[in-house]
């Protein structure tokens, strides 16, 4: 239950939202209080879709910078606000547009598929975007004879290679949160929770090692690789009562809220994205109150970056 100060903040946010005709979109990794005041909580693909279809004039994006940029590219007429400009992403920082141009020059004619966790400048150099929930489908939609450059996440790339049987050129980037979940930790959790179902994000180093060791993709007793919202659906639909969740721990809030009788454990309790946690009720209120901080992608760049996003939204 909210204390008095939090209640007041929530009331202020509600009133400002109405006054400014704003919508609050939050990623599944946001802190519980922010998820609870959001109009919509989802994974990267769902949030892009919401940004594309909302009637609101202002989008307060409770997530990280590349997500707000994507919303601005999709909805150039809307004012997109991020409550803290420092909310970045180590994965998006793992490749620059200049590095990508050099990589492309070494593979002329290759099709470039970029995970949505990239800057607008990097997207503008790509053919397709993808998210964790549609990466396999996007690669499958590309003719088999085409060479593919896949960036920036090496683990998602390895997962897509295995699921599609295609050989990809994979950029060696990684997210510091998912990379550190690691194989040893998951094996320990298997011993600790022998009856648990394992829900694994494809960005995790552990998902790749699980798949590598097994003809059936997994050596986990019962493991499934999903995007964050895929994990949430699986948790609702599965008959299992205990789950070990290998992704950022913010997702546990929604899992517990939606499944009161079930138990959820983090594969690694330290899997916390500091960038995602920079957003809180105070800075959401201030974002609405002072119209800060606007994320606006310059028109020329936005037009180029829109193409791979549009192709993704059409395919998935
Ligand atoms: P999804 O929510 O699309 O699975 O992505 C996870 C992520 O790491 C976003 O930063
Ligand atoms: Fe980026 Fe990793 Fe944080 Fe997601 S969890 S926003 S990929 S740093």
Compact overview of the structure:
This protein has 316 residues and is of the alpha/beta class. It is built from 15 helices and 12 strands.
Shape annotation: globular
Query: Which class best fits the helix and strand makeup?
Result: alpha/beta
Low-confidence stretches: 214-221
How many domain units?
3
Q: Figure out the total of helices.
A: 15
Query: How much of the polypeptide forms β-strand, as a percent range?
Result: 5-15%
Mean pLDDT: 92
Task: Using the CA coordinates, give the radius of gyration.
Answer: 19 Å
Strand order in the largest sheet: 2-1-3-4
User: In total, how many beta strands?
Assistant: 12
How can the largest sheet be summarized? 4 strands, parallel
Q: Fraction of residues in helices?
A: 40-55%
Please give the CATH class of the largest domain. Answer: Alpha Beta
- Ligand inventory: 1,3-dihydroxyacetonephosphate, iron/sulfur cluster
Remind me, CATH topology of the largest domain? Rossmann fold
* CATH homologous superfamily descriptor of the largest domain: NadA-like
Distance between the termini: 38 Å
The CATH architecture name of the largest domain reads: 3-Layer(aba) Sandwich
Order of helices and strands: HEHEHEHEHEHEHEHEHHEHEHEHEHH
List the main descriptive attributes of the protein structure presented here:
Rossmann fold, single chain, 3 domains, binds 1,3-dihydroxyacetonephosphate, 316 residues, 15 helices, 4-stranded parallel beta sheet, alpha/beta
Q: What features would you describe in this structure?
A:
Helix 1 packs parallel to helix 14, helix 3 runs parallel beside helix 4 (about 65-75) and helix 8 runs parallel beside helix 11 (about 205-210). This protein is globular. The strands form 3 sheets. A 4-stranded parallel β-sheet has the order 2-1-3-4, sandwiched between helices. A 4-stranded parallel β-sheet has the order 6-5-7-8. It has a 4-stranded parallel β-sheet with strand order 10-9-11-12, sandwiched between helices. It is an alpha/beta fold and about 325 residues long. About 45% of the residues lie in helices and about 15% in strands. The chain is built from 15 helices and 12 strands. The chain has helices spanning about 5-20, 30-35, 45-55, 65-75, 95-105, 120-125, 135-140, 155-165, 175-180, 185-190, 205-210, 230-235, 250-260, 280-290, 300-315; strands at about 20-25, 40, 60, 80, 110-115, 130, 150, 170, 195-200, 225, 240-245, 265. Helix 11 links the parallel strand 9 (about 195-200) and strand 10. It has 3 domains: about 5-90 and about 275-295, NadA-like (Rossmann fold, 3-Layer(aba) Sandwich), CATH 3.40.50; about 90-175, Rossmann fold; about 175-265, Rossmann fold, CATH 3.40.50. The chain starts with a helix and ends with a helix. Bound molecules: 1,3-dihydroxyacetonephosphate and iron/sulfur cluster.
